[in-house]
Amino acid sequence: QARLEESGGGSVQAGGSMRLSCTASGLPFTTYAMGWFRQAPGKDRDFVASINWNGDTPYYRDSVKGRFTISRHNAQDTVYLEMNSLKSEDTAIYYCVAGPIVTVPTSQDYWGQGIQVTVSS
Fold this sequence. Notes:
Layout (H helix, E strand, L loop, with lengths): L2 E5 L2 E4 L4 E8 L7 E7 L5 E7 L6 E3 L7 E6 L4 E6 L8 E8 L10 E2 L3 E6 L1
Parallel strand pairs: 2-11
Antiparallel strand pairs: 1-3, 3-8, 4-5, 4-9, 5-6, 7-8, 9-10, 9-11
């Protein structure tokens, strides 16, 4: 059974940094694109970043470009999201996703349970 487990969330002050990790099990990791979405209270779940199977094509939403970096370590079935210069508007539950595309959710995606990131100003 496929499973994605996020770690590394918590609380940080504005301007600080945080790294999220997502480890996959039960799926052929290198055949999937990986990504991160986030959902703030009362808002829709939004795309944050994605990376293709071999890690050479990252893609970001405009508001995190230059601050966030997505990467993957295929030998460890893990994808990372390095977040720098964090802002209060980055506060959300962050979800890891594995799928054929991941920039747009599909029925073929696998999702983690989500992890809270809180940025205090």
